[in-house]
Amino acid sequence: MKLRKWATVGATALAALVLAACGSSSTKDSKTTTVKVAWRSLGKGDSMYRVYSKAWISSFEKKHPDIKIELQPISATEGDYFSKLDLAMKSADTTPDIVNEDTFILPADAKAGYLTDLGPYVKNWSDWKNFTAALKKGSQGSDGKQYGIPGTTDARGLWTNLSVTKKAGLSSTWAPKNWDDILSAAKKIKKADSSSIPFAMGVSTTNGESVAMQTFEMLLYGTGETLYNESSKKWNINSQGILDSLNFVNSIYNKDKTGPSLSIAMNSNYGSTIFQDKFPKGQVGMALDGSWNTGNWTKDGVAPISNMTKKLAFNLMPTQNGTKPGYVTMAGGWTWAVPAKSKNRKAAITVLKAMNTKKLAVKRAVQEGTLTVRDDAAKDPEYLKKPFIKEASVALKNAYFRPKNDLYPKVSVAIQKMVEDVATAQKTPQQAAAKYATDVKGIVGAGNTETQK
Q1: Could you give the count of Cα atoms lying within 13 Å of 9 in the half-sphere of its Cβ?
Q2: What is the residue range of the signal peptide feature (predicted)?
Q3: Quick one: DSSP state of residue 211?
Q4: CB 443 within 8 A of CB 406
Q5: Are 146 and 291 spatial neighbours (Cβ–Cβ below 8 Å)?
Q6: Rounded distance, CA 24 to CA 35, Å?
Q7: Is residue 443 packed enough to be buried (19+ CB in 10 Å), middle (13-18) or exposed (0-12)?
Q8: Which of 401, 425, 436 is nearest to 239 (CA)?
Q9: Mean pLDDT over residues 349-375, rounded?
Q10: Contact 450, 229 (CB under 8 A)
Q11: How many H helices and E strands in the chain?
């Protein structure tokens, strides 16, 4: 059977996604059902094209002649992607049949009624037992129902370019023990090479959730505080940890000026600029981000780096003062879900299971640089050859997860704004923290907040 064209849905083409019948294309006269799969596209280098390749789709369709697969990547910023997806899922005439959901947004989408409870479909699936228990739980809604099948997970840390740090007098085995070590190293890099970017971390609201999770929460949880108290069910505001985290951002972007220029930092393409261009070229010393970036630098990646393990280091992000266990990471990931209004649910489940085999789990983790969500895949020899897999796996031993609360996405937006205001010097850390406290009270209610000590 001929494959349908891969459609890339851009910012100006939302109407096309909405009106192109993302739902069923089957009719009474048709013997096939088209299952449409949507995810956020990262452009030409998007690993999804290699994992769910034309060859894989062709093979699937030969085994299932009554089903066709149509990939519908959505080209958008992270924030716009979620908005577009929610809009499409509101109607049976516009919804895709399988969607890629970030675990942080899944509880809110589930509560809004956009997603199908997959519990009845996976309980007798023989492969389900091989998925990591904690990640299955992380793909549930706040009601405890299983709305997603884990696709990827990850760890975050401090990417270090050894050629840049060497110029600054740091050894190849250098690893920061606390935040002061990072700030000091950044200043040394700046002094040794003023044209380089000593330290990069996302701060723009255009980069969405990554700013909340990969920047602010990586700092906050390193102070010993958390965003949300699971015991009291209250959100943390007006705390010293929040202020200290913002002071770190302020030091990088304003006080020490060791961060990227605002023209780079405020661009929606910040991630690709840093990790697909400047970092591989030795123009960035350190960057706070995820383990998945190895996917950019493999032989088949967008910006291959030969012998990357000899040229780069993936250091654990230290706690603020080196407090035990000495490092911290936030862990997240993406899941596959079936919209509640999909007209092709039975066929979608068949495709969904085929997309998440052990073989494809290994392939996706290797291609993307992410960590596998299956226990059996984690033992695969090919997976164990992944660059920096040991360091990323160690980081996961002290991993924190975002609050499983349907209000988190709204709090995340407030975090992003707070960080951006400090990085761009629109507000002092104290002013930004105060505004954040006001915003959070407005989102969750003043009675649902507290100040962690």
Answers
A1: 25
A2: 1-20
A3: I
A4: no
A5: no
A6: 7
A7: middle
A8: 436
A9: 93
A10: yes
A11: 22, 15
Would you identify the CATH topology of the domain 156-331+405-450? Answer: D-Maltodextrin-Binding Protein; domain 2 (3.40.190)
pTM exceeding the 0.85 threshold for the entire prediction: no
Q: What letter does residue 401 receive in the DSSP assignment?
A: -
Rounded-to-integer distance, Cα 403 and Cα 443, Å: 15
What pLDDT, in 10s, does the model give residues 68-110?
A: 999 999 988 877 899 999 999 999 999 999 999 999 899 999 9
Q: Could you give the CA distance from residue 73 to residue 6 in angstroms, rounded to a whole number?
A: 8
Residue indicated by tokens 């699937």: 60
Statement: 11-154+333-400 belongs to CATH 2.40.50.140: no
H-helix segments, 193-282: 209-210, 218-220, 240-250, 262-265, 270-273
Asked if the bond preceding 176 is cis, omega within 30° of 0, the reply is: no
Q: Is 82 helix (H, G, I), strand (E, B) or coil?
A: helix
Rounded CA-CA distance 354/90 in Å is 26
Distance CA 170, CA 299 (A): 28
**Would the CATH topology of 11-154+333-400 be identical to that of 156-331+405-450?**
yes
The β-bridge partners of 149 are 336
Check the CA dihedral 54-60-63-65 and report its sign. Answer: negative
Structure token pair of residue 121: 């479909």
According to DSSP H, which parts of 52-105 are helical? 54-63, 78-89
Span 260-297, pLDDT tens digits: 999 999 999 999 999 999 999 999 999 999 999 998 99
Write out pLDDT tens, residues 363-410.
999 888 889 999 999 999 999 999 999 899 888 888 898 988 889 999
